[in-house]
Hints:
Layout: E1 12-13, H1 15-22, H2 26-34, E2 40-43, E3 52-56, H3 57-62, H4 64-77
Antiparallel strand pairs: 1-3, 2-3
Amino acid sequence: MDILEANQQVEYGRFADLERYFGIKPSAAYELIGRGKIKSAVIKKKGARSGIRVINLESFANSSEVLSNADEHRASTVPGGEA
């Protein structure tokens, strides 16, 4: 079963959604965005200095490297070493 199957209409999400669905913290997500492994965009009003970064959840779910990194990250943060 696809992780996002229940929420097929959800294409983009925020960092809280990444953590909820995949267990990835914002710092790890920024690293993956910087390496071009997942797609993201910043939504802001015209002339604004800052905005809201959204992550393409489907690109995240479809990347096997990203998901394996997520599994490794979860295993390293769970007491006992296994998710």
